[in-house]
Amino acid sequence: MMPLTLLIKQILDGQGFPCLFHFITGLYCPGCGGTRAVRLLIRGEVARSIQYHPFIPFLAAVFLIEGFLYLAGWGKALLKKEKRQPYILGLRGRYRLWTVAGVALVMVNCLVKNVCLLMGIDLLLPL
Hints:
- By secondary structure, the protein is mostly helical.
- The protein has one domain (3-118).
- It has helices at residues 3-13, 20-25, 34-43, 46-52, 55-80, 91-118.
């Protein structure tokens, strides 16, 4: 089997990649739960995907929104026969917003999961 198909099979069938940080410290790293969140999102279980790692559905939403904005700007530019696409306008501000929101989401997610873990509540149970 090709390495890519093995990787996809591991993500869809297995638990995911073991986290060395969690193994050593017993706490969750900022990326813990990401593979399971991807698997759940692929299956269409958005709410459970958010529980395991909210950054994954957030990132999917950002890609959909930016893709829509790009295609809408491209179509508008074709209709008006413009050389510059309107999509570029405001791009820097949107990327800054997406980045700040994503980093904040990952930090809050890590904090909440580790506080719950220390209280005896494990939010990242195996699937």
